Amino acid sequence: MAGTVSILGVPFSKLTLNETTLHLTKHIQSGEPKLFHLITANPEITITSQSDELLRTILHEADLITPDGIGIVLASRRKGDPIAERVTGYELLLELLAQGNKLGWSFYFLGTDEHTSCKAVEKITERYPNVKIAGRHNGFLTKDEEPAIVAEIQHAQPDFLIVAMGAPYSDKWVYKHKQALSQVKVVFGVGGSLDVIAGKVTPAPAIWKKLNLEWLHRLIFAPVAKGQKSRWRRQAVLPKFVYRAMIRK
């Protein structure tokens, strides 16, 4: 993978947010009949991949992995091969919606709860009236429902499939159905981005973003979906990441 830096074996893209958006735009415009799987990975995902063989395979077969976390950027600097900036799923989604509003791209949204899914799509339609909504569905799927949803997405042939079912579940779900989603041009997971767009979760204030403390804002203020590990438990992996990626040689 060109233009990457390896952090604990994960090849992170060195493209900026604008460069990543341009890269995806070129893929859409090329008409290449290939599903482009982008992954936004943070220190938690990086550490999890060390012991999760399937996740490690998914990361190495991805078309692009963006650095979704200041820890990744700092680790690249420590390595002497710096990444210019973070490229988070939320920021990338907003950039692509803005670009899609200019170019008439289509999006299918899969994930979060039913009410939030509806509200997020409603807000997106208001803010980006030229974006085509190819479809949407909540993320609480049973195994029996999955084939019908996959068939619906395939039939809709969206430019972008946005998956908001939590990491790394979203990317494992995409990987499981990769062949069946061949008519989709680009797919990536966005974590809780639809919750923010819908207004269910308050985005971090500008000062928190400037200080690279969005993770702390989420830790304190963002609710955790039923069935997911608490954010405090998930953040327990950060010391491991700091030691393995920035201290241990």
Note down, in words, how this protein is organized:
It is a single chain. The protein is α/β, with parallel strands linked by helices and 249 residues long. It has a single domain (4-198), classed as 3-Layer(aba) Sandwich (Rossmann fold). The protein is built from 13 helices and eight strands. The strands form two sheets. Strands 4-3-8-7-5-6 form a six-stranded parallel sheet, sandwiched between helices. Strands 1-2 form a two-stranded antiparallel sheet. Helix 1 packs across helix 5 and helix 4 (70-79) runs parallel beside helix 13. 39% of the residues are buried.
Q: For the residues shown, what is the average pLDDT? A: 89
In CATH, the homologous superfamily goes by the name AF0625-like
CATH architecture group name: 3-Layer(aba) Sandwich
Rg, alpha carbons: 17 Å
| Class derived from helix and strand content | alpha/beta
Major sheet: arrangement of strands: 4-3-8-7-5-6
pLDDT under 50 segments (min length 5)? none
Assembly type of the chains comes to single chain
N-C termini distance: 24 Å
Keywords: Glycosyltransferase, Transferase
EC number: 2.4.1.187
GO molecular function, one term: N-acetylglucosaminyldiphosphoundecaprenol N-acetyl-beta-D-mannosaminyltransferase activity
Protein name: N-acetylglucosaminyldiphosphoundecaprenol N-acetyl-beta-D-mannosaminyltransferase
